[in-house]
Write a structure and sequence with these properties.
By secondary structure, the protein is an alpha+beta fold. It contains 14 helices and 23 strands. It has helices at residues 22-31, 48-59, 84-87, 97-104, 123-131, 166-176, 192-203, 235-248, 265-273, 313-321, 339-345, 376-388, 399-402, 408-414; strands at residues 2-7, 12-17, 38-42, 63-67, 70-74, 106-110, 135-139, 142-146, 155-157, 182-186, 207-209, 215-219, 227-230, 249-257, 277-280, 286-290, 299-301, 325-330, 350-354, 357-362, 370-372, 392-396, 418-423. Helix 10 (313-321) links the parallel strand 17 and strand 18 (325-330). Helix 4 packs parallel to helix 6 (166-176). 55% of the residues are buried. The structure holds uridine-diphosphate-2(N-acetylglucosaminyl) butyric acid. Uridine-diphosphate-2(N-acetylglucosaminyl) butyric acid (EPU) binds at residues 23, 26, 91-92, 119-125, 160, 162, 165-168, 189, 193, 310-311, 333-334, 376-377, 404. Residues 7-412 form the Enolpyruvate transferase domain. Pathway: Cell wall biogenesis; peptidoglycan biosynthesis. Its main location: cytoplasm. Phosphoenolpyruvate binds at residues 22-23.
């Protein structure tokens, strides 16, 4: 298990490239199961979650070649049974359900287990797939799915008590592309990653309208064909480094290339409100972020896209821990996603968490302590805190961060941070 030692206090400068989006890559890799023709996907980040997905595709019978960021998949002969040993490692494995059902009329996938960021039920995935003709039996921890009459389009409302579901929308969209007739997803997720998946499917010959809005319409087609596709930039990786710029860069700031300005709007707005400098180039593909002279605390409430992303909540907690004033962060999507706060308190942060809300009294310099990463974004928050802390912070269980940040230690080194990955 690797750990990261961050020697705090370096001033960040220079520039890096942002990687392709992990959360777009995962469903798009799964969607390659929808055709027996070759699929080429570019800018797939080299993170452990995409490696798990590739292992699942291989275990299902697909031939997969990966060379740097490009993945070539040939899913000529595939089976319907996703092995538990691989599925249990990553919740996003459940997005093979839709493609397997569409292509083979059956799928067996384990129920994902508990998750440290809160309850993550799959009732909306099941609701969507049942509505278009899937029979589902639960047995031995598996979801056994069959569509004996074939999948048949209908209208389904996928809203849940915490709003729309991203992977639930993806699953139904991937199942519906080969269904008979038209499927309408009401209360669909509108995240940029859902739009990227829709564009990938459209490139394969699917007929989809409305991706990026709350209503997606899918007209089923008989067959899909091969495609070449480039994954969109990772807005959460970009947002994380933008926060790093606001917290630890010199007056010149740091510059991030290969970003998408539109996808970063809620993060940009909050950094500007907190008094920092955020400047995009003319075509919105590079951004410079520098710390403001008089930063101040803010109130943030997470919401489905185009609202403030839950996946950036932990990183802003780090920013506000060192920002004078009182900030309040409420997570309406995952109200239990505050594991980072207890670890940050060990570094001297003043944070009170109650009922899905963190109240942060910021301004003091943090000090180094050995801390434990609990999930992907919580780990990112600890790295950010460590960059400005006094002393050397040891972040254990680095595998959490390796799930979703491509070569984070190398990128931090390129920006002038003093970090070391230590194998233990
Ligand atoms: N929900 C239900 N029932 C369902 C599915 C979801 O009640 O059947 C609830 C969830 O418990 C949550 C809300 O709906 O309260 C939204 O969950 P969603 O289904 O949208 O989450 P997801 O699709 O499983 C993706 C990202 C997460 C990100 C969320 C929200 C991927 C691989 N994962 O998860 O990313 O936090 O959307 O935007 O795309 C991360 O990258 O660190 C991460 C956790």
């Amino acid at each position: 298990m690797d750990k990261l030692i961050v020697h705090g206090g370096s001033t960040l400068s220079g520039s890096i490239n942002i990687s392709g989006a992990k959360n777009a890559s995962l469903p798009i890799l799964a969607a390659s199961l929808l055709t027996d023709e070759d699929v080429i996907i570019r800018r797939v980040p080299d993170v452990s979650d995409t490696n798990y997905m590739i292992q699942i595709l291989s275990a299902l019978g697909a031939e997969v070649e990966r060379s740097s960021g490009t993945v070539r998949i040939s899913a000529k002969n595939i089976s319907h049974d996703a092995p538990y040993e691989l599925v249990r490692k990553m919740r996003a494995s459940i997005c093979v359900m839709g493609p397997l059902l569409a292509r083979l009329g059956k799928a067996r996938v384990s129920l994902p287990g508990g998750c440290v960021i809160g309850d993550r039920p799959v009732d909306l995935h099941i609701k969507g797939l049942k509505a278009i003709g899937t029979q589902i039996d639960m047995e031995g921890g598996n979801m056994d799915m069959r569509a004996p009459e074939g999948l048949i389009g209908t209208t389904v409302d996928l809203s849940g008590k915490h709003g729309p579901t991203v992977l639930g929308t993806d699953n139904l969209m991937m199942a519906a592309v080969l269904a008979k007739g038209t499927t309408v997803i009401e209360s669909a997720a509108a995240e940029p990653e859902v739009v990227d998946l829709a564009n990938f499917l459209i490139g394969m010959g699917a007929k989809i309208e409305g991706a990026g809005t709350r209503r997606i319409t899918i007209h089923g087609v008989e067959k899909l064909h091969g495609v070449e596709h480039t994954i969109i930039p990772d807005r959460i990786e970009a947002g994380t480094f933008m926060v790093a710029g606001a917290m630890a860069a010199g007056p010149e700031g740091i510059t991030l290339h290969r970003v998408c300005e539109a996808d970063l709007k809620p993060v940009t707005e909050k950094l500007l409100e907190a008094g920092h400098t955020v400047e995009f180039n003319k075509n919105g593909t590079s951004v410079r972020v520098a710390p403001g002279e008089n930063p101040k605390g803010c109130k943030i409430t997470t919401a489905p896209h185009p609202g403030f992303p839950t996946d950036m909540q932990a990183q802003f907690t780090s920013l506000f821990a060192v920002t004078p004033g009182i900030s309040v962060i409420e997570d309406t999507i995952f109200p239990q996603r505050f594991m980072h706060c207890a670890e940050m308190s060990r570094m001297g942060a003043n944070i009170k968490v109650d009922n899905g809300r963190a109240v942060i009294e910021g301004g003091e310099q943090l000090s180094a302590a050995p801390v434990m990463a609990s999930d992907l974004r919580a780990s990112a928050a600890l790295v950010l805190s460590a960059l400005t802390a006094k002393g050397s912070t040891e972040i254990n269980r680095l595998y959490h961060i390796d799930r979703g940040y491509e070569h984070i230690d190398e990128k931090l080194l390129m920006l002038g941070a003093n970090v070391e990955r230590v194998q233990s």
